[in-house]
Amino acid sequence: MRAETNENEVFLFGSAGPKPTFAGSKVSNLFNETAKKAQRERKKAKKTTASPVCREKGVSLQTKPHTMTRKDFEIMAPVGSRESLAAAIKAGADSIYFGIENLNMRAHSASTFTIDDLKEMAQTCAAHGIKSYLTVNTIIYGEDLPLMRTIIDAAKEADISAVIASDVAVMMYCRQIGQEVHLSTQLNISNIEALKFYAQFADVVVLARELNMTQVADIHRQIEEQRICGPGGELIRIEMFCHGALCMAVSGKCYLSLDNTGRSANRGACMQICRRGYIVKDRETGTELEIDNKYIMSPKDLKTVRFIDRMMEAGVRVFKIEGRARGPEYVATVVGCYQEAIQSVLDGTFTEEKKDGWDARLARVFNRGFWDGYYQGQTLGEWTTNYGSAATEKKVYVGKAIKYFSKLGVGEFQIEAADMSVGDRLLVTGPTTGALFMDLEEVRYDLKPVETVGKGMRVSFKVPEKIRPNDKLYKLVKSAKEA
């Protein structure tokens, strides 16, 4: 509790403090009375359980041994398009998160959904048994409040599973109308006291990406010991990022884009200024200093698949994948690898051979190089050495799907751009198809098998599952560094 005064007013801050009060000559008495009240409440709080109180279910989690199963863990996939949504569902995601309009942190780079899409998104997820999370996690200004309320009302009406929030205005309004809330990484929750405060709003909390697993495990232990629960009456679940891009700033609170371009990263309009190459120059002499890497502000991507077991042991229950601005092939690959990794840990088959296999698959899709983040105790960041993706494969547009012959399991395609040959690795993407990978074993033109097909030709070949008209066809080729 603290008091800040000027000539005629006193502002009292604290969990038990009143609203700002104008006290005049009674400042001293008001402060003393409020301080005594707060002291009594603090003593009372020490004798009671954490608030809100956990709902009892016969036997508590602390006294009943529990064997962890796949249902205890959640893989949350990023969705910036309908193709990515389908890819996430097919790859085995347990939940997806997405944004609409302008009040989400990917409004500039992955804003393909509108408020009119909410019901469809929620229904699609519910039909496949997965949860839908809507991000409303930017800084909220006064003029944004009407839009924020409109979005939250629509989310509630559409049966969106939860809203991911960082602004207290969003949390308060969600609580007012009964919409479940999860907390965003933007809050930088790094200790148990902060988590206890925010537990009044949310059942799931993202911890800061700057924590290590020892710190995470300690927070998890205290959640269980103190029975810290969310509004739903269940113990708070810890969510953490497990894969994808990292920001140069603490918990993503960067002002570089705003300073350079007038577009705020904290308003979903990051211009990725940190990803550019830079030189270091002496302002007085003009001398350019030699540095070993010009990408001095561009972190490598986070990858935790090799130590996902440590995260599970530390108490992480929701594994969040970054990448709403990335393609469906990225979503399908990353979700698939982490799904397999978590299951392998549970099965006791989490081997070095499997880890190497996941590493190779993850390297094929968009990445800026990989590191462990801060999770294993590293205190300094690692920086990428190139601009853009360091993926070992790149996709080249070939053409589009025309028809699917279900009895034959064959797809017909119009070749519009690059050629392709038997032996090529292919990718088909679409709003319902998601991301479908295959090797081209045979291709036919005019019903006859051929080795290579090119622009203008209508061809057919076997596909592993149903494709739809206008699905896009790509071939996957080795990147320049790998060729």
TrEMBL record:
Transmembrane segments: none annotated. GO terms for biological process: proteolysis. Signal peptide: none annotated. Keywords: Hydrolase, Protease. InterPro entries: Peptidase_U32 (IPR001539), RNA/ubiquinone_mod_enzymes (IPR051454). Residues 35-55 are annotated as: Disordered. Residues 37-47 have a biased composition (Basic residues). It holds the Pfam family Peptidase_U32. GO terms for molecular function: peptidase activity. Belongs to the peptidase U32 family. This is Putative collagenase. It comes from Paraprevotella clara YIT 11840. The lineage of its organism: Bacteria, Pseudomonadati, Bacteroidota, Bacteroidia, Bacteroidales.
